[in-house]
Amino acid sequence: MAEAELARFIDRYTMEFVRHYPHPIERVWRAVTEPGELAQWFIPPSVWELKSGGAYRFHDDAFSGVIEAVDPPRFIRFNFADPTEAGSYFQFELSPEAGGTRLRYLQHAAPGVARPWQPPHAWDTPWGGGNLGGWHSAFEELADLLDGVPCGSRRPPTAFSAIAQDWADRFGAEFTAEQKSKILRELRERERWFELCDIYRAHIDATLPPAEKAI
User: Fold this and answer.
1) Which residues face 71 on adjacent strands?
2) Total number of domains constituting the chain
3) What is the pLDDT of residues 111-154, one digit of tens each?
4) Residue 3 · residue 17 · CB < 8 Å
5) Residue 213, domain member (yes or no)
6) H helical segments located in the chain
7) Residue 65 · residue 76 · CB < 8 Å
8) Is residue 104 a part of any domain in this protein?
9) Distance CA 197, CA 137 (A)
10) Quick check: bond before 209 cis, omega within 30?
11) Could you report the per-residue pLDDT of 128-140, keeping only the tens digit for each?
12) Closest CA relative to residue 87, chosen from 73, 107, 70
């Protein structure tokens, strides 16, 4: 995987993804702000008030909060309802460029919040293979959505893909071709997530800026 495709740490508490999509900014804006579109490449929103100060919630409170600012079709920022995350936010920035749209996803974590599940060198950050790998995979699926193909359908096959296909062919007589295809895509999605977890754990360990030493 090209290094440029991976998330980059601006500082210890701020990371970004940059992606380029060959579609007009208005189309990409719809994909990152309309519930029906978000449900296809990210998580279905269960509460969605698209305005500054509006509430949002993703999928049974996976995470929720307030939309802090909206400037269609270029900018939207979200905070977190969790009081331990006061000062944390994530945002999408869109800008037109030759041939399409540049998307910058930025997430900032409030400093000084202990996260006991993290390894010692990352104790005060939320960055892990799971969440960064999840965003990476989501942006792959966003590209699929924008290009008009089923999300996850363009991931390259692996040895596991062949095993799953063999299982579907031999034991999936009760499934339609469409159902089989969906099952295989979802299995490949999970496999891809595990691949990305390993890639990002190593990437975080190698590139996360160190914590400042107490004076």
Assistant:
1) 75
2) 1
3) 989 999 899 999 999 999 999 999 999 999 999 999 999 998 89
4) no
5) no
6) 25-33, 35-41, 129-147, 159-171, 177-207
7) no
8) yes
9) 10
10) no
11) 999 999 999 999 9
12) 107
Q: Which domain holds residue 95?
A: 3-207
Spatial separation of the C-alpha atoms in residues 193 and 83, rounded to whole Å = 29
Cα distance between residue 63 and residue 59, in whole Å? 8
| R_g of the chain, CA atoms, integer Å | 19
Q: What CATH number did the domain enclosing 108 receive?
A: 3.30.530.20
Residue 112: is it exposed, middle or buried by C-beta count within 10 angstroms (0-12/13-18/19+)?
A: exposed
In a domain, residue 170? The reply is yes
212 assigned to some structural domain: no
Q: What is the pTM for the complete model shown?
A: 0.89
The residue whose two tokens read 């499934």 is: 175
CB 100 within 8 A of CB 23: yes
Calculate the alpha carbon distances from 136 to 99, 133, 174 in Å: 22, 5, 34
